[in-house]
Amino acid sequence: MLFNSDANSLDTSAKALRKTSFWFAAIALICLLCADLDISTVDPWHELSLMAVGALSPSVWSWPTLLTSLANTFSFALQGVALAAIAGFILALGYGSTIIRAFCAFIRSIHELFWALLFIQITGLSSLTGLLAIAIPYAGTLAKIYGELFEEVDLAPARNSPAAKQPLTHFFYTVLPLAWRPMATYTSYRFECAIRSSAILGFVGLPTIGFHLETALGEGHYSEAAAYFYALLLLIGTLRFWLQKSLLPIYLLAVFYYLPPQAQISWDLIARFITEDIVPTPLRGEVFFTAGTLSGFADWFSLLWQQQMWPGLINTVVLGQISLVFTGLLALLLFPLNSPLFFRRCGRMTGDGLLILLRTLPEYLLAFLGLLILGPSMLPAILALGIHNAAIIAHLVGRHSEELVLRSDASGGLNRYFYEVLPRIYRQFLAFLFYRWEVILRETAILGILGISTLGFYIDSAFEEFRFDRALILILASALLNISVDQFARRIRLRLHLKTTPESL
Fold first, then answer.
1. What is the pTM of this model?
2. How far apart are CA 401 and CA 335, in angstroms?
């Protein structure tokens, strides 16, 4: 009876996993019917061949410009993560509060590029803009991870210690030491992400390597673009060798000296931005809201909803859902490259190198390249989001598969994949996938800046037209969508008893 009960429980669990996967795939297929997947370029292979030639013959027209852009990219990233880590740690101390959780969820739900577009209106194209654009959303993310790590620390060995009776002493001498290593690991990973974010800030005008990449690609100078691209890959790929703990204080002092966070701030401009520019047009200059002003606001919001917000939300969800499922399928195909169950050391090193390369490529840059080759549609965005996120998940699933022990007579090849390994790693795979869902949706929204009609497209258009009131409402809509998806994904993980290791993500 006990054996049967356990078996039924396992069957029920497996059935729940299959059912959840089926519904997500079905919804993605429906979304696929509504998606714009047209290839609008006349000769995509010609453009791809030109890029290939450029990739094989990189050239640097100006070494000082390349080195300066690399230094700026590194400086923004390190400053932003340093400030985010401090703020995230402080917020994590009170992460049990619903208000703090909601605040952290809100600030991390807004993409770095959206923060940059907001701060540009106040502080201009300054170093302070780049610092705040990275630090604010990263603080929300780090607060979440730090807070969860504090909650998940195994305190069993220290329950009877004298320090357990004093909360402050207990935290600094028991909780923090136990959580410190995964905190450091995840913070290091966020710094790698920050370098990609810093590079992408160049697409809105900040002097990082992304600015020169976009310029070179837009003008068809693919050899020059390749040089900047390889420099970015080299910067990220060699982090483990030169970013040592003992050197961090020196690096921090150097970047704050080289690129101090400063800007020409006009308090009159800030006051105007807050009290007038971002206030909905029908409500500007009104001290008391009358029936007429409220009616005008309702008409204004209704028009915004019909023409921009609703289409943007629908396209964001459609693109996000397709990208999520494509990410999952691609990750299942790629994870054997990083697994000792399928490849020996040499093959694993090659496969792991490929996954590192794919996850290093920023989604925004991949989508930009795809748009040049395929034209403006959802297809380049799907490919970009899928490739980047699938590489991350495949790397994590491959590492997880190292814990599996197969029978001595276990089959090989496809039989090993489908019958021995996949059923045992699928639960962890889903956990990683749903953990990345919010990230995929954030990136989906921002890809609208490239011309794809997601919320980001309408937000960028509003900024270009100096309609900051519309931009703010649309940014808030994007944030609420991301928060909703994050909460929904969390419920699914809890319902299916899916566990992730936050320090890995």
1. 0.85
2. 9
